[in-house]
Design brief:
100 residues, alpha+beta, Rossmann fold, two-stranded parallel sheet, 5 helices, elongated
């Protein structure tokens, strides 16, 4: 939570007011598809990434009228040991097919 959500929130809090005053700027947050649809066996991760997506949407609404863009990049799963160990053969096949 501290790295995935609190850190970006504190950084945004420091930079957004000067950006709004200058009427320009851009904030890019890093989310995850795990924050949009859940991620088996990674509850805290999913919660923190869903939070960063909500933070991004909120800041975009608040700062948009000041010409400050706030976006979130949400990459999907990456093939690796953690993904290949997800429970359920069907889930593993679906995840691996998505990564091809």
């Amino acid at each position: 939570m501290a790295i995935n959500l609190t850190g970006p929130m504190l950084c945004a809090r420091e930079v957004i007011k000067p950006m709004m005053a200058a009427r320009k700027g851009s904030i890019i947050n890093i989310g995850s598809e795990g924050g949009r649809s859940g991620y088996p066996m990674r509850g805290p991760y999913s919660v923190s990434k869903r939070g960063i997506i909500a933070l991004t949407e909120t800041l975009a609404i608040e700062a948009g009228e000041y010409n400050v863009r706030v976006n979130c990049i949400s990459p999907g799963r990456v093939r690796g040991e953690r993904v290949e160990k997800l429970p359920g053969q069907k889930l593993n096949r679906q995840v691996l097919l998505m990564m091809m």
